[in-house]
Amino acid sequence: MTIPYGLQDTFSEEGLWWLKGNENKPEAGTLTFEPSNGATLRIFGSLQEVSSPFSILVDGIDQANIFGITRNGKPVTLIKAINKQRQINAPGFAVETWDTGLLIIGVHIDSETDDEIFTKCYFRFEKLEEWLESRLFSFEFADDSVTVTASVPRGSNLASHIDFDLSSIGAAYRSNKSVTHSEINAFRNLAIVPRAARSLKWLMAKATRIQDLASLCTGHFLPLTHLELSAPAEDLTEEHPRPRLARVYAQLTRQHAGQRPSHEPPLISANELFEANPAALQLWFDQYEIFNPAIGLFFTISSAKDMTVNVRFLLAIQALEVFHRRTTKAELMPADAFAPLVKTLVDAIPAAATVAMREKLKGTYAFINEPSLAQRLRSIVADLSIDLGGPPPAFPKSYQRKLVETRNYYTHFTETLQATALDGRGMYWASRRLILLLTFLFLRRLGISAKALLPLLERHREFAKLWKDAEVPQF
After folding, report:
1. Helices (H) and strands (E) in the chain, counts
2. Which H helix or E strand runs over 146?
3. Cα–Cα distance, 185 to 70 (Å, whole number)
4. What is the pLDDT of residues 79-131, one digit of tens each?
5. Which of 268, 167, 262, 265 is nearest to 217 (CA)?
6. Half-sphere exposure (CA, 13 Å, Cβ side) for 188?
7. Range(s) of the chain covered by CATH 2.40.10
8. Are 23 and 77 in contact (CB under 8 A)?
9. Is 76 helix (H, G, I), strand (E, B) or coil?
10. Bond into 91 cis (ω within 30)
11. pTM above 0.70, yes or no
């Protein structure tokens, strides 16, 4: 059996294509998909009915769902494709180029939000087997032979959400295409089974949020490699109707995983997470919109390859500040008392102040009820100290002050702070330490106490070294 294209694959398909209502007037064209650029459809003709050869340039449709069927009979839908180029050749024929960031192979749908026809979602991402603690192959060596066993579990439940169940299932493909050898490809998928049929967009949102959860538990971003949806068979009168399987291909915003050592285990596995708190999945989804700005920064700093140490450090500090602001009510004084204070301060601005100075002071006063970075760090450490029964050794007061001074130096480049700011090596390890601290804080929000988390995280060599003290670690 041929392994289907994955989200990380580049491929092309020839076929016939049309807009809704023009099923009887398809045009030939070639569809190309690239993970970083999305899908491009080049049409040899025009998908639109035109009154004259050149009216398409004026009256042409700029965005539409495009339907098609490939040479081997696969239905395809390009979601909200944008007409990138129209070319009129005289003599000759028109050529159109359409781009989209989302296509689905296997079904035709009118809307990614309104067509609630999908009953299951199967997906996987890099290092899924490690997160699931699943060893698919085992080897037994003898003097004259090697026995290879492929163990692919049929399926097991992982966790539940109010709207769906999450499980893992195994899959395997055998290929005999080569005349010199045989291949067996075995892997695990995660499966989302909603309580009722759902839309493409709904299931994609759930899959990517679970992907983010697994990435957090692993310590860096894990790119999605496969996304497949199941819909009921079109002909339910058959004796054994088979569900339609539709594969989704989307333009990837974060295509590559973080470069961590391949032997490094996840910080916390799926089984450990859901055993520590069976409601962790529900809590993750309940708080995702709160987490979201910090999550985006978290994966940027933990996965981006080409980033200078000072920029990575500044983004790590920003992620920590965003997380604290979004998850705590840390106003310096009650809002109802703050408004009169600001009015008093604004009224007290001397008449001699210039317009520019008055504008700056009013802008500053609007945000002075927000804690400073130093105050946020003290709040985080104090909160952890209560849960752990003592202050975290990696963040003593002197190190907190060093983080603040370094951030202030690189945002203002004040000469007086240059001598006290961390150097490049110090900023690198400070960024790694902040990433691990954020991981700790995220996981605590999933209903797992700091005392329960610490033994799990300390198995991770880097975490143990960076948590032990505030020094540059020696490996």
Report:
1. 14, 15
2. strand 146-150
3. 26
4. 999 988 877 666 667 788 999 999 999 999 999 999 999 999 999 998 898 89
5. 268
6. 24
7. 11-105
8. no
9. strand
10. yes
11. yes
